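User: Okay, second chain of the day. Same drill as before: sequence in, structure tokens out.
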Amino acid sequence: MEISNFSIDMYQDVYRLWEITGITLGASDTEEQVARVLDYNPELFLVGKVEGKILAVVMGAYDGRRGYVHHLAVDPEFQKKGYGKTMMEELHKRFLKKGVVKVHLFVENENEGVIEFYKKMGWYIRDNLEMMSYNPDNKYSDKC
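Assistant: Same drill. Structure tokens below.
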């Protein structure tokens, strides 16, 4: 698998990949919003290709002190072949180059398979925190 930086012209293919893998998508996943993430973190937004086809994606972000992982997805036909792990390892290398010492990610509670995937990679569940969200302009009706 060849890993490269995401570019906005890949948006439709990546969005379809997110859809077929069951990622909950919302107002923050429009092309405009994804382009904003790309502007801030171009070297952390990665795609994995085999023979030119995008089969994996991970959107990394960095706020100046901590890293975040969003929307890791691998085409269902290619899952359990190490592509997700390879994408995460590359993202971790890039986080280390930025001096990131802690990385966070969010997994929906019912997505047990994904939780197990991350646990096998050394991630742990924080039970001392609650995630909270806020929509500053109440423009969006979804909770995503």
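The chain has a mean pLDDT of 92.

User: Thanks, on to the next one.
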